[in-house]
């Protein structure tokens, strides 16, 4: 999943929390996990309208769905390397 660009729109109104969104995305792109070790954890990050990259879950759900422009799934430990 990490590093795989997928141009896909997601209807955020189908989800009611960060957990359901993250689980759905990870399940959606599970084919890219075959080469990954089991037990690897992922973090959902997003780009807001101002162009800043933030960790999903740091703001209330409603604020998130109003400001998200782009989503990215990162393997835990990779968040620190984000510019």
Automatic annotation (TrEMBL):
> What is the annotated localization of this protein?
Nucleus
Mind telling me what this protein is named?
Auxin-responsive protein
Q: What is the lineage of its organism?
A: Eukaryota, Viridiplantae, Streptophyta, Embryophyta, Tracheophyta
Which PROSITE patterns does the record associate with it?
A: PB1 (PS51745)
Q: Where is the PB1 domain?
A: 1-81
| Free-text function comment from the UniProt entry | Aux/IAA proteins are short-lived transcriptional factors that function as repressors of early auxin response genes at low auxin concentrations.
Q: Please give a single GO biological process term from the UniProt record.
A: regulation of DNA-templated transcription
Cellular component, GO annotation: nucleus
Quick check: keyword Hydrolase in the entry? no
Q: Does the keyword Transcription apply?
A: yes
InterPro entries with a match to the protein in the record: AUX/IAA_dom (IPR033389), AUX_IAA (IPR003311), PB1-like (IPR053793)
Q: How does it assemble?
A: Homodimers and heterodimers.
- Keywords, ordered alphabetically: Auxin signaling pathway, Nucleus, Repressor, Transcription, Transcription regulation
Family to which the UniProt record says this protein belongs: Belongs to the Aux/IAA family.
Which PANTHER family does the UniProt entry name for this protein? Answer: AUXIN-RESPONSIVE PROTEIN, AUXIN-RESPONSIVE PROTEIN IAA17
């Amino acid at each position: 999943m990490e590093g795989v660009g997928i141009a896909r729109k997601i209807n955020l109104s189908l989800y009611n929390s960060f957990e359901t969104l993250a689980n759905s995305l990870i399940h959606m792109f599970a084919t890219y996990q075959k080469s990954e070790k089991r037990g690897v954890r992922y973090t959902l990050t997003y780009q807001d309208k101002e162009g800043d990259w933030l960790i999903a879950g740091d703001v209330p759900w409603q604020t998130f769905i109003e400001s998200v422009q782009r989503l990215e799934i990162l393997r835990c430990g990779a968040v620190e390397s984000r510019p």
